[in-house]
Amino acid sequence: MPAIELDAANLDLSVFIEPNDTVIWTQGTGEPETLTKALADQREHLGGIRAFLGSCFSDNIRPEHADHIQFVGMGAIGKTRSFVKAGVLGIIPMHLTGITELFRTGQFKIDVVMLQASERSDGELSYGAANSYLPDAIKHASVVVAEINDQAPWTHSVTALPRDKVDYIVRTSRPLLEVPSRGPTEIDMRIAERVTSYIPDGSILQIGIGSLTDAVASCLSSHRNLGLHSGIIGDGCLDLIEAGVINNVTKPIDTGVSVTGGLFGTERLFRFANENSAIRVDPVSHTHALSVIGQFNRFVTVNSAIEVDLTGQINSEVAGGNYIGSIGGQTDLVRGAVASPNGRSLVVLPSRLGADGPSRIVSRLMGGVTSTARADADTVITEYGAAELRGKTIGERVRAMIAIAHPDIREDLERSAYNETFGVENLSAH
């Protein structure tokens, strides 16, 4: 049965959303804004629903909408930080790859999927700017609603968006949400220069978005034959693709193709990806799968963290004393790097928060929360150096981490390591 087309100007979401339904939509730049705006406007009349929030860059859905919508998600990503601050986001602590299993088993039941889609001239649909966990949600949803936006890029993927899975179509024409690059700081550049020595020519690169990762990308312009396999990418990666630095020739699979789960950049990136077979927007079952990443030689991940302790444990869930979640795909990718022959997992962060803020190299993680275990630790890099932790003893790790902390903090860290936390003696003697 063909999908039913609805008028975007006169949407009545009660046609497909029933009381107590759980609704999920495309995250980030792929948010179906006509549908989410209607959801916010009509929430009082929908009888009480639950919504799953991913990363968010629009103001369509806001914390005050918790008056009629119960919000759940994996953490504070983008503007969902305001939901955490307001105490209206129920956070599910889990790895990104785990969410697909929750959908499959029905432990997290999805009733309605709303997605932004793109339509090619031959009528074939695509997921557009963001894919991630949407294909798995669609498999197990009762209703699928596609906002077909004629300004969204038509992107290739290992997972097609079948027309026969779409129950309702809403046609729109609107610019996509953008995530512009921010200029890197001097500290970002100092860190980035250290990072590049750990990315040899021919590496397969996973890199996220943000000023620090953009700085890393800017320092790779003299590299050769890099590959790209990442959860999300921004315009910084596009610079490397257009310069021929990223050409994916060393990949044993997806050869010649840059792979990502989402295009979190600007119109420039969207236009580049449009009907371009050299870039794919793939589901988490491909971008974060150990079975895929383990086939790559020299898979190098570049990720940040809120803080790292002296043994290499990573906290990406607690900030300023508040639980914000956001485990996301970091641990999946870190373990992928460990599984990859000659792979490297690089955790990059400034030594302290701001010019005079607290140290981000700590003796104990905030709240005692460990997002990535010390057993998965490889290399931590700040503006003061790199601590190579893999295969090192606790004592060796402690000394290496103190050496890359801010100089003003090192004495306190030594004292803590000796007196309280690790019982490591004679630090100064080594």
3D architecture notes:
With 430 residues, the chain is α/β, with parallel strands linked by helices. The protein contains 13 helices and 22 strands. The chain has helices at residues 33-42, 81-86, 96-105, 134-140, 186-195, 211-218, 235-242, 267-273, 284-287, 290-293, 330-339, 394-404, 407-421; strands at 4-6, 22-25, 49-53, 69-73, 89-91, 112-119, 125-126, 143-149, 168-172, 204-207, 227-230, 258-260, 279-281, 299-303, 307-309, 314-315, 318-319, 322-323, 344-348, 361-362, 379-382, 385-388. The protein starts with a strand and ends in a 9-residue tail after the last helix.
**Percent helix range:** 25-40%
Q: Count the helices. How many? A: 13
Shape: globular
Could you tell me the number of beta strands? 22
* Biggest sheet descriptor: 9 strands, mixed
SSE-based structural type: alpha/beta
Task: Output the radius of gyration.
Answer: 22 Å
Low-confidence stretches: none
Distance between the ends: 73 Å
Percent in strands? 15-25%
Mean pLDDT: 93
Short description:
With 430 residues, this protein is of the alpha/beta class. The chain has helices at 33-42, 81-86, 96-105, 134-140, 186-195, 211-218, 235-242, 267-273, 284-287, 290-293, 330-339, 394-404, 407-421, and strands spanning 4-6, 22-25, 49-53, 69-73, 89-91, 112-119, 125-126, 143-149, 168-172, 204-207, 227-230, 258-260, 279-281, 299-303, 307-309, 314-315, 318-319, 322-323, 344-348, 361-362, 379-382, 385-388.
Explain the layout of strands and helices.
Elements: E1 4-6, E2 22-25, H1 33-42, E3 49-53, E4 69-73, H2 81-86, E5 89-91, H3 96-105, E6 112-119, E7 125-126, H4 134-140, E8 143-149, E9 168-172, H5 186-195, E10 204-207, H6 211-218, E11 227-230, H7 235-242, E12 258-260, H8 267-273, E13 279-281, H9 284-287, H10 290-293, E14 299-303, E15 307-309, E16 314-315, E17 318-319, E18 322-323, H11 330-339, E19 344-348, E20 361-362, E21 379-382, E22 385-388, H12 394-404, H13 407-421
Parallel strand pairs: 1-9, 2-3, 2-6, 3-4, 4-5, 6-8, 8-9, 10-11, 10-14, 11-12, 12-13, 14-19, 15-20, 19-21
Antiparallel strand pairs: 6-7, 15-16, 17-18, 21-22
